[in-house]
Amino acid sequence: MEGKGKKVLITGGAGFLGSHLSDLFISKGYKVIAMDNLITGDISNLEHLFKHPDFEFYHHDVSKFVQVQGELHYILHFASPASPIDYLKIPIQTLKVGSLGTHNLLGLALAKKARILVASTSEIYGDPLVHPQSEDYWGNVNPIGPRGVYDEAKRFQEAMTMAYHRYHDLETRIVRIFNTYGPRMRLNDGRALPAFIGQALRGEDITVFGDGSQTRSFCYVADLIEGIYRLLMSDYAEPVNIGNPQEITIKDFAEEIIKLTGTQQKIVYKPLPADDPKQRQPDITLAKKLLNWEPKISRVEGLKVTYEYFKNLPQEELFKDPYGKKFN
Ligand code: UDP
Predict the structure, then answer these.
(1) Which atom of ligand 1 is nearest to the CA of 250?
(2) pLDDT confidence of residue 325
(3) Is 150 an active-site residue?
(4) For residues 139 and 82, is the Cβ–Cβ distance under 8 A?
């Protein structure tokens, strides 16, 4: 098995992407430590791994000093709030995990001589003036807007990671993740897909922000995870876009969800949030060339699986407020 004798630390392990990564590494025979402070992660995403002999869970906030006993071969830093509502509700934690958290994990990677891959984002392109976005575009970010806490933390993260690579010769990888969807996304965190499906399942109208002409390009989670694994195993230290270039307007996307769920509800229009990017589409030329990777799962297929997942959640999940608690 590929992962035999190798140990990997996945931060944000109880989150949407972290839990899928944990599954992938376990399936390849790695020993996996999933670390999460459970602010936005959900332990139920990992429950199926708890009995696995190669799996461990550490309840820890990576913004504080991170300690792991013994050897470590890979670190994947996926801990971060990642939805526009998160940025409003937990802005300081968002800044800290991208900056202090990244610093702690780079230090750990250096101490363990581990290779580290950090999760960056299409948000570093801000409201892009270049379309589609390729890795050499520097972006158009408002540092002090509501999304600035995420965008700037992630930009700092990239700078810090490249500095460790250049100064310490650390083996680093940076993935720029575009909109991704699939099972285990958090309901009610304000992102478009869980918002629309949640509304359909509760029998509420579908809220489209602005006139719905803004675009996004949605990648199914299994495609993304495969791209991330290939990048980790490559020898390329600069950022690589991973996403699905199939672009759609949010209004058309809402209509797709209405059709898929068969809801009788209609679209209602709400104000566009501040700094909401008008367009977003990854240029994946580099990933294709470097990793021989491109997404394989169409939106029709991916949305069907995702809808099944949400439909089968316990009814009370549909009404849960993820921000019922207050965080320090
Ligand atoms: N959006 C929407 N209605 C919602 C939630 C989101 O119209 O209930 C829009 C949002 O304004 C944005 C797009 O859908 O233009 C994607 O939003 P999401 O929060 O999923 O991701 P991001 O803006 O970070 O790409």
Answers:
(1) 14
(2) 52
(3) yes
(4) no
User: What is the value of pTM for the model shown?
Assistant: 0.97
Given the structure tokens 């680093």, which residue do they identify? 172
- For residue 49, what pLDDT is reported? 98
Report yes or no: 137 and 176 within 8 Å, Cβ to Cβ: no
Given 30, 87, 125, 150, the catalytic residue? 150
Best CATH choice for the domain 7-181+220-242 from the list 3.40.50.360, 3.30.70.380, 3.40.50.720, 3.30.565.60: 3.40.50.720
Q: In sequence order, what DSSP letters do the residues of 277-310 get, joined into one string?
A: -S---B--HHHHHHH-------HHHHHHHHHHHH
pLDDT single digits (tens) 223-237: 999 999 999 999 999
Ligand 1: residue whose CA is nearest its atom 25: 179
* pLDDT tens per residue, range 18-66: 999 999 999 999 999 999 999 999 999 999 999 999 999 999 999 999 9
Return the residue whose CA atom lies nearest to atom 14 of ligand 1. 192
Ligand 1: centre distance to CA 328 (Å): 26
Q: Is the CB of 147 under 6 A from ligand 1?
A: no
Q: What does DSSP assign to residue 273?
A: P
- Distance in Å, CA 85 to ligand 1 centroid: 10
Q: Is the CB of 276 under 6 A from ligand 1?
A: yes
Query: Which of 142, 205, 250 for a ligand 1 pocket mutation test, highest count of atoms within 8 Å of Cβ?
Result: 250
Q: What are residue 103's phi and psi, to 5 degrees?
A: -60, -45
Q: From CA 285, how far away is CA 64, in angstroms rounded?
A: 37
Give the tens place of pLDDT for each residue, 168-202: 999 999 999 999 999 999 998 899 999 999 999 99
pLDDT over 60 at 291, yes or no: yes
Measured by CA distance, the residue closest to atom 4 of ligand 1 is 192
